[in-house]
């Protein structure tokens, strides 16, 4: 008999959730749970959330810890009953016992059970999967209930909630507070510092001058279907290439809605985006507060992780970018993460320090420096060339 893959089993259960139990309504498929995804999320007949993790073979003990983690994280975020269930071909007695002890449900759904059921109720699907060996498009068209409908509350952006909003982002700071109000208070205090800062600095051995346009106040903006809500602060860049000035800006506010429900009390993300230039050749750098906040210390981590999109900036140029920054005194070091990356050292940034304005200025300078070098290495067709960087990349 044809052996179902995990993806095919998922397809079948999306179309026929009654194989799990009666009365299920699909909410999410591959819902985002921080750095992982849960296979299926349903609302059951009693209005509870059911998280289902599928395994194409035997359920193992480590799978219990996985689904239990999902359940506990969601329980901390929504005030609803949350069930967890493991579904596989077989569930050993030892696994059943541990599941029962941890209030995790289990169900054996064997390939032959699926085959016989489809033979009775859905022969077209049976033919497509078991005879043609292909996934069924019908699964993609199954109507889903959004978290917004389920919770009977509206996202602050006026769009449906998804599971992506209910869990910490995978790059969340380990020093975030469990209290979203505390995270929001510290992030907003840094926002105010940026809004009030009369920034004026020379970068790259005085080859670049960046000045905030103090005569132009921050402009409140809302765009991208209201998922960007914040303020644009105008700056100007002067250099040998741009003696009359190149328009720049800092945007502070929300960018999308990833994981913001557990991070901030108002469920709205908080970012800095530095933009150099205008029009199609402008270049940006983003800084997410969820990644760098040290809430209890009322501070930010003293570095910025250098991560680039390989489509916009080919990997072969990344080392040249690091070298260019280093040659002008910006300290680059390796991270200690499992997936090594490069960190641009900024130094202490603390609301409790008397030099906090200087420190926030250091953060802004670092983000501008990264953006300028990135713009040059993108080239004149996609970015903005600077004469003083030509020795690094032409």
Automatic annotation (TrEMBL):
Keyword Nuclease: yes
Keywords: DNA-binding, Endonuclease, Hydrolase, Nuclease
UniProt GO molecular function: DNA binding; endonuclease activity
Keyword Lipid metabolism: no
Residue intervals of the Endonuclease NucS C-terminal domain: 5-110
A Pfam family of this chain: NucS_C
Protein name, per record: Endonuclease NucS
Organism in which the protein naturally occurs: Fervidibacillus halotolerans
């Amino acid at each position: 008999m044809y052996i179902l893959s995990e993806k095919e089993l998922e397809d079948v259960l999306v179309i026929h959730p009654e194989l799990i139990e009666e009365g299920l309504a699909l909410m999410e498929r591959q819902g985002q749970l921080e750095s992982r995804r849960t296979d299926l999320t349903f609302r059951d007949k009693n209005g509870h959330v059911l998280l289902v993790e599928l395994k194409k073979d035997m359920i193992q003990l480590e799978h219990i810890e996985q689904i239990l983690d999902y359940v506990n994280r969601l329980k901390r975020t929504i005030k609803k009953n949350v069930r967890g269930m493991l579904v596989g071909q077989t569930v050993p007695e030892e696994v059943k016992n541990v599941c029962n002890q941890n209030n995790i449900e289990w169900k054996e759904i064997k390939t032959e059970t699926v085959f016989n059921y489809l033979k009775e109720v859905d022969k077209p699907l049976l033919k497509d999967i078991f005879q043609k060996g292909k996934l069924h498009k019908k699964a993609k068209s199954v109507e889903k209930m959004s978290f917004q409908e389920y919770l009977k509350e509206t996202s602050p952006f006026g769009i449906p909630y998804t599971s992506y909003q209910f869990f910490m982002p995978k790059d969340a700071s380990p020093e975030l507070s469990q209290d979203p109000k505390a995270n929001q208070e510290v992030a907003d205090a840094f926002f105010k510092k940026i809004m009030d800062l009369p920034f004026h600095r020379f970068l790259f051995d005085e080859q670049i001058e960046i000045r905030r346009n103090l005569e132009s106040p921050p402009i409140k903006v809302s765009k991208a279907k209201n998922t960007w809500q914040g303020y644009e602060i105008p700056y100007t860049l002067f250099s040998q290439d741009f003696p009359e000035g190149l328009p720049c800006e800092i945007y502070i506010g929300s960018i999308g809605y990833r994981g913001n429900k557990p991070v901030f009390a108002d469920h709205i993300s908080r970012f800095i985006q530095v933009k150099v230039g205008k029009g199609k050749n402008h270049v940006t750098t983003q800084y997410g507060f969820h990644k760098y906040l040290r809430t209890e210390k009322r501070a930010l981590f003293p570095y910025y992780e250098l991560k680039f999109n390989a489509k916009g900036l080919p990997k072969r140029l990344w080392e040249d970018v690091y070298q260019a920054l280093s040659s002008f005194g910006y300290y680059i070091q390796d991270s200690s993460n499992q997936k090594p990356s490069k960190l641009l050292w900024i130094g202490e940034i603390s609301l409790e320090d008397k030099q906090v304005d200087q420190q926030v200025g250091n953060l802004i300078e670092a983000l501008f420096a990264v953006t300028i070098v990135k713009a040059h290495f993108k080239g004149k067709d996609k970015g903005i060339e600077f004469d003083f960087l030509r020795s690094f990349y032409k």
